[in-house]
Design goal:
This protein is α/β, with parallel strands linked by helices. The chain folds into two domains: 208 residues, Rossmann fold, CATH 3.40.50.300; 112 residues. A five-stranded parallel β-sheet has the order 2-3-4-1-5, with helices on both faces. The longest helix has 24 residues. The chain starts with 23 loop residues before the first helix and ends in a 14-residue tail after the last helix.
């Protein structure tokens, strides 16, 4: 297998994505809130990673900062009488979307270049000492952005803060953000992206309007891939879409990492006896633990976790089902921690392959055992 490459890093990010596939209802909710004059100062955009939350946040910010929303009428036929306290837009019918802003619009150009004076995006920053991206959003990143809120906008316009994602803030960073959420300046908007809303501080959640985005349908995922990565569109088969679970971002990362080849290698490893499989697993671990192979490493973690999830779903033995469910969670957490805490990725892959292989062999053995006979008292309804 050729050394994996991180081609996905060169693809356009949300700042340059002017179109949003799907999420018509979410756009209509934001548009209606804007035109209602009761726009919440904080919004928590939740949903699976890669489904378009950051793209939606930037699309909303672009429509505001360009003035396009001021000239657009409110969505027709969309009644949200309880908007400020609305927990979910499940009862909202899709209506007009947010207005499109041309890429050559002055505000859009400044946003794409990271130079718009009315926008701050908070993400994990580079540690100047190590030269590497931090594993979390630090308090200094938030405090620097909050300084901009304390300055009056030069044109009297809006100031917008996007946190992408809020889940990656450490406790000090979250508390620093909370202070501004509690007493927001006039014409200030917070758009917080969350992949796992349960990790967000309750005090932050309580000060935001929740807007939940759903995974996209397969046809929408295909359309999003064609728009963001046309060179990969032809490779998006049904198996890949199933693994992507409604997330175009995940689908693109899987395609970039050649998930099909990785899936075949993992299948071969798990089909071998432990000793033989261990040798193949070592080769796989060496490949995806190298510098520049982060997407391949993440993909291996997702594929191994998926194997456990399938075993949990299909197991007829309760002990196997419980073990598979536990390993599913453990594998996902192990790979996440390896990346965030800079742990040994090679060891992470080897251990996950070994544990999953043992579980597969245990599940196979349980299938060969006959089912326990039905007690006579239960036959024929007693």
């Amino acid at each position: 297998m050729a050394e994996p490459k991180e081609r996905a890093a060169a693809r356009p990010g949300p700042e340059n994505a002017h179109a949003l596939v799907g999420h018509e209802t979410a756009e209509a909710v934001l548009s209606k809130a804007w035109h209602s004059g009761r726009l919440a100062h904080g919004w928590l955009l939740t949903g699976s990673e890669g489904i378009g939350k950051a793209t939606l946040a930037l699309r909303f910010a672009r429509a505001i900062l360009s003035g396009a929303l001021d000239g657009a009428g409110p969505p027709a036929g969309l009644d949200l009488p309880g908007l400020p306290g609305m927990e979910t837009p499940a009862d909202v019918l899709p209506a007009d979307r947010l207005p499109d802003v041309a890429p050559d619009d002055p505000a859009a150009r400044k946003m794409a270049g990271g130079a718009h004076p009315g926008l701050r995006i908070i993400r994990r920053s580079v540690n100047p000492e190590s030269g590497k991206v931090r594993g979390e959003i630090a308090v200094g990143d938030v405090r620097e952005a909050m300084k901009f809120l304390n300055r009056t906008a030069a044109d009297g316009g809006w100031r917008i803060v996007i946190v992408d994602p809020v889940d990656e803030m450490n406790r000090n960073a979250a508390n620093a953000l909370l202070k501004s959420l509690e007493e927001p300046p006039d014409k200030c908007l917070f758009l917080l992206v969350s992949h796992v809303s349960g990790t967000v501080l309750p005090t932050i959640r309580s000060r935001c309007q929740l807007l939940a985005l759903s995974p996209l349908a397969p046809d929408d995922v295909r359309a999003a891939i064609a728009a963001a990565a046309p060179d990969l569109a032809s490779r998006a088969d049904d198996a890949l879409l199933d693994l992507a679970a409604g997330s175009p971002g995940r689908a693109i990362r899987l395609l970039d990492a050649d998930a099909g080849a990785l899936e075949r290698r993992i299948g071969a490893i798990l089909a071998e006896p432990e000793e033989a499989g261990g040798i193949a697993a070592l080769d796989l671990a060496e490949q995806v633990a190298r510098a520049g192979a982060t997407e391949a490493f993440r993909t291996v973690g997702q594929l191994l976790a998926r194997r456990s999830a399938i075993l949990a779903r299909e197991a007829r033995d309760a002990a196997v089902r419980d073990a598979a469910a536990a390993l599913w969670f453990e594998t996902a957490e192990r790979f996440r921690e390896a990346e965030l805490l800079n742990l040994d990725r090679r060891h992470t892959v080897l251990k996950a392959c070994r544990d999953t292989g043992r579980l597969v062999r245990t599940a196979d053995a349980s299938r060969d055992r006959p089912l326990a006979p039905i007690p006579p008292s239960l036959e024929g309804g007693g």
